[in-house]
Amino acid sequence: MMIRRNPSGDLPQVHPEAYVDNTAIICGKVIIEENVYVGPYAVIRADETDASGSLDPIVIRANSNIQDGVVIHSKAGAPVTIGFSTSIAHRSIIHGPCTIGDKVFIGFNSVIFNSTVGDGCVVRHNAVVDGCDLPPEFYVPSTMQLDADSDLDNIPRVHAEASEFSESVVCANHELVKGYKALSNEF
């Protein structure tokens, strides 16, 4: 893995029980907790400061997975938090300020910016959530675009099948952490 300091001198903190692919780039004030899986070519970069020169961390909570090609960054040092047991699927962009809750699934190529995504939400593939706060358990269909003016009364709640799928992705990636950690001990 490529661990880099940011210009402010902050060095990422990666829990020894996490797995970060050696092609991923982790830069600056990033905290990765235990049993997190960070896939190939992911970029997690906490390096922009606010006007006073300070920045909040990007935090990836335990048992979450950041899949291949995901980009997580933040504007002007704003915080980004990815909750516990959350999946950020391939090539998604999470751009702060942003809070993603616990047990959330963000689908392939989705973009989340300046938003809060509540616990248990499912945001399907190629969706955009921009400047919108989603309450817990909302289901955002593929390709939907939400912003601050969106009427959330028309957004469905997560159904059991979507929750089960989200849980299966977390379990599969948790097994990848164990498997890749065991492989890395062979070399």
Automatic annotation (TrEMBL):
What Gene3D superfamilies does its record include? Hexapeptide repeat proteins
Do you know which InterPro entries this protein is assigned to? CA_gamma_LbH, Gamma-CA, Hexapep, Trimer_LpxA-like_sf
Q: Which domain of life is it from?
A: Bacteria
One protein family per Pfam: Hexapep
Under PANTHER family, the record lists: CARBON DIOXIDE CONCENTRATING MECHANISM PROTEIN CCMM, CARBOXYSOME ASSEMBLY PROTEIN CCMM
Stated family: Belongs to the gamma-class carbonic anhydrase family.
Name used for this protein in its record? Carbonate dehydratase
Organism per entry:
Desulfobotulus pelophilus
